[in-house]
Give the backbone structure.
Amino acid sequence: MNVKQLAETLGARLLTPDSPDAEIEHVFAGDRISDLLNRATPRSLLVTNLTGSQVIRLAELMDVPAICFLNDAAPSPEAMGELGESQTIFLVSPLGMFETCGRLYPWFAQEVESGA
Amino acid sequence: MTSEAYSIEGGDFEGAGSASRQLKEHLKKVGVNPKAIRRAVIAAYEAEMNVVIYAHRGVMEVTFLPGCLDVHVRDEGPGIPDLARAMEEGFSTATAEVRALGFGAGMGLPNIQRNSDHFSVHTEAGKGTDVHFTVQFEPMRLGRGVVHSIAIHPDRCRHCLRCLPVCPTQATRVRPEGPQILGHLCIDCTACLAACEPAALVQKGIAEVPTPAAHTVLILPDPLLYQFGPAISPQQVLAEIRRLGFRHVRLHSSWEASLRQAVLDHERSGATRRPVISPVCPAVVNLIETRFPSLIDHLAPFLTPVDAALSQLDGRHTVVVVSCPAQRTSAQTRSGQGKVDITSSRNLLSQLLPRLQHGVSSSMAAVHWGDRAPQTPPEILQASGLTHVLDLLDTIENGLLGEIPVVELLACDQGCFGSPAYRENAFLSAMRARNQNHQDTEPASSVRRESPYRPRQGMRLDQDMGAAVRKLAQIDQLVRKLPGRDCGACGSPSCMALAEDVVLGRVPLSACVYLPPDQETST
């Protein structure tokens, strides 16, 4: 599934240019860095309430194709400045984690995992 | 055995992660396999964050051992009061502020353990902690040895340095004894050949046009038909070639057309990532394997047109005329059984020129206007010339090309028409080819590649990973001393390339004309 379809499903806005190459095969939702770190792959979408520069760094470090922030809360411009050469796509969902994951669930069936 | 050290600042949540990021970059350059990189980066990041969260300052020391990465993260901090509890998942002493950032979940040390092959912690209250882990790895598998088809005549070199900036992979060097080409980087394009006016760099030795037998097939690049001015039609050129004894002539364009169709069908099947890159130009395939290995997934799995032609005509005596070094190299690797002869466009041109030039009046009436060549289908983006090809490959690599199904990239301007093998202007001869289009009507089919595309050694500095790391550190250090002008006066294409050359023992540092003499001996 590509990021454009994801964004349409969620009514999310994109903070960075879309990349047609970004192919999402699974979704992981969680708010703990250790969990995100363990589950991040070059084919995952991370869904998180965290908006600090650390999660942006993490995405770059783990070559994550896309992150979805929640509740219409985007990272600060300073945190976005950390982006550098990162190719991660940033989405901001207007919904909370429960509803965001709910809408994504049918698309990924068993592949949605929720953070403990 | 070599080591790297990265410093970590306690409490610096903004800069946190930079040691792990540097480690990741180095692991990539040394050629560690991606799975091991992932494990090492997760473990290193957790250890780094522990220093940021709990300690004043620390250092990450990475040692490369054969087949294994050994990491110590030492800090000056309070130490861990109850190590057994700290190893329990979910136990944490982090503050609420730290937890709000997503840290302090009590997963750090267990996470390091899970992602390493050996793990231990030494801690002393009031002094600090030493987290030690190792990650085993295997070197990444690389493609076969690389051959290329550019020959060097050192005696002709005028040391003009023009071959340095044009090379897309920085493979050229100009030494006092003449030009050099780093074979493992050369992609067999025509950039340095076109830049080299005195012909010190030329396409590698190719036999004269061989004498044809009755059944010999000649495979001809189309541009050759349009090299004799507007008054000579492709049919006249073909008639002249027949007089040389070649009764059966096929054109490269037949296999280009069948490749195009195969790539379009393949794109619709969805088996290769979009945009699908057509392997129409062997130099571009080499370029991707060397400088854009991340785009290998985009290459359609077919033979290049010349390779496909040779594989289809297998068993017959074939003379293949090549336009460039890349075509020659790939034709040569297929010409095992001695039934294939390779010759260059230049050789054939020099035979044809005296026959076709004299006594021809340039009257438009004499021109045979064939059907116009078919246009490029709308779903194909075609681009030619190295500047544009490199720019587009960058764009694709950055994921910014948008919804384009297929790209055809040609290293020379207007494709083979722009090879320095030809005398006529690339755009002019290409226009003539469009207008006086001549096609060969016999069947040609695309051929699937049996072997996968493989990344080339390219960036890797040494077969031995430890040695590669040591060299990487030396290059980093040295490049800071160099002026950064990338002037090429030393004979290397950039300051970075010179640093690499010095560290790999190819050239002394004194080659740099700007470096003060007192610094020359310091490395």
About this structure: Chain B touches chain A at residues 13-14, 16-17, 20-21, 24, 38, 41-42, 45-46, 49, 101-103, 105, 107-108, 111, 114, 273-274, 396, 398-403 (CB under 8 Å). The CA atoms of residues 219 and 320 of chain B lie 5 Å apart. Confidence is low (pLDDT under 50) at residues 140-144, 361-367 of chain B. The longest strand of chain B covers residues 57-65.
